[in-house]
Amino acid sequence: MVLCDDGECSVCLLPFSRSDRIPRVLHCRHTFCDPCLETMSQARNGLLTVGCPLCRRVTCVGRGLSLQEALWVNSKLWERIPEDTKEGEEEEKEEDRRKQIAQEEGMKAKQQQAECASSRSSGTKLKLPAFFRRFTLTKRHQERIVPGSNVEMKSWRRLSTEDAV
After folding, report:
1. Is this structure's pTM higher than 0.90?
2. What is the domain extent for residue 142?
3. Residue 161 contacts by C-beta under 8 Å, 6 or more apart in sequence?
4. DSSP type of residue 152
């Protein structure tokens, strides 16, 4: 059963590369890219372990070793990966441009939030509709004491039209 193309990671479905998506082999002989292996790895009892998402076999990495140090690169796939040249540079430029646009949008959003906060603090008071002004909690609460009970009762009263204005 083939889940994906031979030149791409079966977890993220992105093609392997020589720079950031290096194909590494687990002990079960299944191959995944570095970022996916980092995401799947867990530290247990001082050991770094990776559970294979295809066969569920666990690969243990020795103490003090990283995944890059402990796992082999799949040489068959490595040879088929084209060397990163102008395509990689173009992708990096495109990614840098996207990051710059995102930062500019973030700055605009922060400015809008600051403007909104300054307009709120300018002394604007919230005006309630007339319906809510009719109801208020009485300042002097009425107490009713029931023999054998320690419950305090508070009551609401409706203001007349003269009191509401």
Report:
1. no
2. 130-156
3. none
4. P
